[in-house]
Amino acid sequence: MVDVRKERWNKQAGTQVGREERELFEKVILPHLNSAYNLARWLTRNEQDAEDIVQDSFVRALRSFDTFRPTEDGRAWLLAIVRNCCRTWHQRSRVAQAVELDVDSQPALAAWSDPEALLRNAGDSEQLHAAIGELPLEYREVLILRELEELSYKEIAQIVEVPLGTVMSRLSRARRELYARLSASGGQVGR
Amino acid sequence: MNCQQARELMDAYLDQELDLMTSSQVGRHVAECEGCGEVYAKYRRVRDGVSEQMPYFAAPPKLEEKIRAELDLRKEERRAAKTVANWGRWAAIAACVAGVLLFTFVSVRALRRPSGSELLAQEVVSSHIRSLLANHLSDVVSSDQHTVKPWFSGKLDFAPVVKDLSADGFPLIGGRLDYLNDRPVAALIYKHRQHTINLFTWPSAGGDSGPQSYSVRGYHVLQWTRAQMTYWAVSDMSAADLNNFARDFMR
């Protein structure tokens, strides 16, 4: 009899924890929906796929919410899941990377004669979209996480699962690749 | 710090991700080197300008609703799964309890209502133990079957078969009157080394049968019927020795 009562009490405590967990989830994870969508949208370059991935990511996030430490940043934690879902999506849809680059080689030195022309091109949203979208995935993800989410190198390193030094060189290389594309486009012929 | 190092570190410098020492070295180089200063100024302008232009995709308004619904659904599913699991667990527990109850019921039935011969075997063993405890092993002490057999006549309504099996290692010690199976019976006492054998016998209506062996509280019991006499042999010696005794007696 005592055992039955104890079990019932434990079960009630269990649902209590479940409700608290859900409340915490809504407080620290759900507000980062836009960040999740933005990353997925940039990595898939497709609205519908981005939505599906974000939904899937939240389901996964809730399922593995017990691995979330309250001291962690909820956004970085969620974005790591979104990023992994995007990776899986890329592998499954076999989207061939247009350019095979040694993404972690030393960044080339920047040398633009006319930054204003480059910025004019960047102001054309269609050109900018195309330029970012054509970057290799490894570049795109660090670029989005830094320029749009303004995450620290350390947070990016955790999300992308590479060493800090790799984030530094990859981001540098990603920017220079993007800027080179922007300065080359917009009427200028070739590179 | 040379120009190449400074330009390689330019992104991290702009992003304020360098340690204080390296950051101040890059800063000093950019301030002192005219070429790098110009590159830095342009680079900073480009980075800030492009970064500003980069569009941020906000989630569609209905996505949050969809996700909340999806999460609620998963929660329901999880709860449903839990409920099913609970039912499953209770069903398993119920099955176990039912199994144990059935087993107990059958066991208790078997224990409480043993067959007639099992009951008799228990009675035989009790009688054997009593005969040893009460120092009342024999009413007539004789190794001579011709003394023992006549002693029973007039005391019983039947004449038991009395054999001396000294030659086989089972010397006859004596005889005794006992009461078993709701009737007076003859008890013949044999010895085998340090072991005592009680052989109970009385008339039975059935044909020849046995020997049938029983084991009660560590005692071996053999029962057989020959020439319309039933025999119950009991002893604490080994089953093999008791078997030999029965075989020799029946011979």
Describe the protein's topology.
The complex is a heterodimer of chains A (191) and B (251).
Chain A: H1 2-28, H2 33-44, H3 47-63, H4 74-93, H5 115-123, H6 125-133, H7 137-148, H8 153-160, H9 164-184
Helix pairs in contact in A: 2-3, 2-4, 2-7, 3-4, 4-8, 5-9, 7-9, 8-9
Chain B: H1 3-8, H2 10-14, H3 20-32, H4 34-53, H5 61-112, H6 116-133, E1 140-141, H7 145-152, E2 172-180, E3 183-192, E4 195-203, E5 209-216, E6 219-226, E7 229-235, H8 239-250
Antiparallel strand pairs in B: 1-2, 2-3, 3-4, 4-7, 5-6, 6-7
Helix pairs in contact in B: 3-4
Distance between the termini of chain B: 118 Å
Strand content of chain B: 15-25%
Number of strands of chain B: 7
Mean pLDDT of chain B: 84
CATH superfamily of the largest domain in chain B: MucB/RseB, C-terminal domain
Biggest interface, CB < 8 A: A-B, 47 and 34 residues
- Estimate what percentage of residues of chain A fall within beta strands: under 5%
CATH architecture of the largest domain in chain A: Orthogonal Bundle
Shape summary of chain A: elongated
Q: What is the helix tally of chain A? A: 9
Question: Main attributes?
Answer:
heterodimer; A: 191 residues; mainly alpha; Rna Polymerase Sigma Factor, Chain: A; Arc Repressor Mutant, subunit A; 9 helices; 71% helix; disordered C terminus; B: 3 domains; 7 strands
Q: Care to describe what's here?
A:
The complex is a heterodimer of chains A (191) and B (251). By secondary structure, chain A is mainly alpha-helical. Chain A folds into 2 domains: 2-93, RNA polymerase sigma factor, region 2, helix turn helix motif (Rna Polymerase Sigma Factor, Chain: A); 115-184, Winged helix-like DNA-binding domain superfamily/Winged helix DNA-binding domain (Arc Repressor Mutant, subunit A). Helix content of chain A is 71%, strand content 0%. Mean pLDDT of chain A is 81; it is low at 1-16 and 187-191. The mean pLDDT of chain B is 84. A 7-stranded antiparallel beta sheet of chain B has the order 1-2-3-4-7-6-5. Chain B has helices at 3-8, 10-14, 20-32, 34-53, 61-112, 116-133, 145-152, 239-250, and strands at 140-141, 172-180, 183-192, 195-203, 209-216, 219-226, 229-235. In chain B, helix 3 (20-32) crosses helix 4.
